[in-house]
Amino acid sequence: MVNLLHIRRTLLVFAIGVMLLLNVFSQSTDIIPAPQHIQKLTSTFTFTQSIEVVFPHSIHPDHPIQKQLESVLSDIKKYGTAQQAATLWVGLLGEDAAMAGFFEYHQLPIDHLGKEGYVIHIQSDSVVVAANSSAGLLYGLYSLVQLIQQNVKVAKIPGVQIVDYPAFKYRAVMDDISRGPLSNMDFFKSQIRRLSSLKINLFSFYIEHVVKTKGHAGFAPLEGVTIEEFRYLSEYAKPYNIELIGSFQSLGHFRNILNSPAYRHLGETDRMLRPAHPESIQFLQEVYDEMIPAFSSPYFNINADEAWDLIRGDLKELADSVGPGVLFANHVRPLLNHVQSSGKKAMLWGDMLLSYPQAFKYIPDHATILTWEYGGLDSFEDWIDPIKSKGFNFWVCPGIVNSYRIFPDYEEAFINIENFINEGYEKDAEGVMTTIWDDGGGHFFSRDWGAVAYAAEQSWHPQRKISADFKQRFSNVFYQDTENYFLNAVLKLNELKELNTTQRLNTAFLE
Predict the structure, then answer these.
(1) Which one of 335, 348, 410, 457 is least enclosed by Cβ atoms within 10 Å?
(2) Mind listing the pLDDT tens digit for each residue in 19-36?
(3) Sign (positive or negative) of CA dihedral 493, 498, 503, 504
(4) Of 88, 10, 89, which is closest to residue 49 (Cα–Cα)?
């Protein structure tokens, strides 16, 4: 006979188990950037006001890791209950023998962590964050902070095991500060902090004329950024695991400097330097020599994009004779070599090389080429394959374009970011530099964070067809908005660009 009492007990145990599992999985595990590996466990860590912290003493007390640890503890204790003690264990694998033993006992994989990877292991009575370096610990704590902040209302976080590390070694963001609003130092620092929380490790600025040098003080505006301020920002960013890439426009887009009477003689046209002219080269090298020591990254970008005047005006006959690629290469080659001789790795934009492939054979092989395109395309082979086939190191550079607009086109940016970065990853790009362009624009960087965060995610963990999932996670992590109201509103506003009267949401719409 069937034992009805046994069946009832079995069903009751099953029901209780289901309820417990639902309780665990109803808690959010959203993290940006998405981890490489995340496994949910059946345990739940309940916030407790009495928590023991085990932390390595080798980390400087002023390091951002300490600030993140304090943030974690603040959230735990603020919402915690007076339950039994728990442990928060934060450690470096190479310095903490007990931590290494813990990893061996639990068979936690650490082979791919490298410098910036981390592991989080959350059980009912403990949270473990481990890494090989302070950078990895910082990133692990950033992820833990996100888990805590989105679960504060329930005062518990689900048991999980996270093993995470970046796909790209170089993950950069570049802000155009020359043609839109010029940020102040406090905002630069806030950008560094938030970019660090998104696990971005390089920050750059597009600079035409807004740098104040001592040798050439005449072209910068009064509110320009001094060399000393860039040096200060470089030092400020170091503990956040961010290096600053120096940058100075070096051929086209030179109108702002050429408008100054003292430098007008350097112009071939009103917007371009005289290519390869000794005075032009000397001027650029003098500016480089002041800027290069102020920036912490091993890279320096000479830009040199969109120099279309190479085939116009007085240069047209020469370009027809020797080729515009030769004119371009004759100008940038001594600049690239000068950067290298100054101890940096030289970068330049790739558009002129792609337009005039003749130039490739004259470009020094030590140069890194930044290939860019900002459209919402399915394939970027035309911007990657020619450079890869020549054997150059290259980075892919998606864009968030605000040019002459009051709001960035998120729809286009998300497609561009996802497809360009993923194709770059598949074709061995060395890094990613996400560019934010403000030429003629009047809005502030704060409107760009949704797309910047998506670029940070794709730079860390490239995945296709995840934009819908990301948008929900972004709203939850950044705003604790489980219904995604904010980003849905932004995307609805973006639909206005389809109306002819809005002229792509530019400033004319408001006039």
Answers:
(1) 410
(2) 334 344 446 789 999 999
(3) positive
(4) 88
